[in-house]
Give the backbone structure.
Amino acid sequence: MPRPRVLGLFARPDLSAKRDFLLGVARAARAHEDCEIVMLAPVDRLAPFSLPPQLDGVIAWPDLAEELPSLRGIPAPLVFMGHIDPGPGFTRVRIDNLAIGRLAADHFLARGFRRFAACMLRADYPYGRDRLAGYIERLAENKESDQPEIFRLRDNESTGGEIARLETWLRALPGPTAVYCDTDRAGSLLLRLCQHLGVKVPDQLAVLATGDDDLLCALTHPPLSSIGVRAADAGRLAFELIEARWRRPSTRPAVHALGDFRVTERASTELLAVEDRAAAAALRLIRERACTGVSVDELARAAGLSRRMLELRFKAATGGTIHGEITRVRLARAQALLADSDLLVADIAERCGYGEPQRLCEAFARAGLPSPKAWRAARRAGAGTAQGSLTTRKKRRSPVSGAS
């Protein structure tokens, strides 16, 4: 009986993206009974590491350039991942970080923002520079938007002096401003400081980060919107490239770029930037009370307008209807509970203002989605993005100027 192929994985699971990457490799390898996986990277980045005598392939996500010589010397097919370039002659899976920056700008522009900023923790790293460059380039293409105010965090961002520097910058930002953060770590720090200073998110600042670390994003207040980097897809692709070398050893090394990223929208960006104060107040109340019950008449009374006048101004400011926004917020909340909890569909329907599960199912059907149970199953199987999401709005019109 032939021995199994030995695949070495050199990656430290210290970030959600790296864990997803490793899981992507493992799931792809699961279909091959003759593949044995060996973890190679020591937990301590400064500790030396040894390689087993027999390796048929290695997938590596190194953290330090000093780790490259030992990895490059392995006499087996190699696939590299991450921001450290192994040099020519090696197969590499690369994340298109320029596309991530452009997506962040598009996400904010679609919500009507005209003032922008960026809080960068990794501006000195290639992926951080690319994300910022993509963000700036896309904003520059939009003639109505201002260029972003840039704040560069240092690695010792938790020190008192660095926090004070960030606080000064944050206080000077006018509202509403859209802030892009190059990592979830930078985004979580910014949201903690906003909470401490009493800065309302997303009313005064909307915050979007990169990485989509579900635990880190959930622990912030409010929960942090973030762009996923498709790490699990990168892991599957890395294994396919190794397998291709096993089948055809003459396959030439190449760089493979991943794009087509998506935003997981949470509460830190879940608001349109509108200049009409009445429409903005209505949006705020809808976000707070859509699931517990709010009527158009109540919104009109809170805004001090007639129902018809509020409907007209809301339509002009957002491009949508009040009823449509209430429905969107309810469905977005239902999707979040389906994805992140084990509550019964009946309980979710009650919490989201539908009362009965049948009404929630009908709302999903009207939105072109599968049933809540089917949507939850697909999301947990890793196909949630293919099933659609109600967390986005129709493209809005230009805001009404001078309304109050």
Notes: The first helix runs from residue 16 to 29. The radius of gyration is 24 Å. Confidence is low (pLDDT under 50) at residues 383-392, 394-404. The chain has 15 helices and twelve strands.
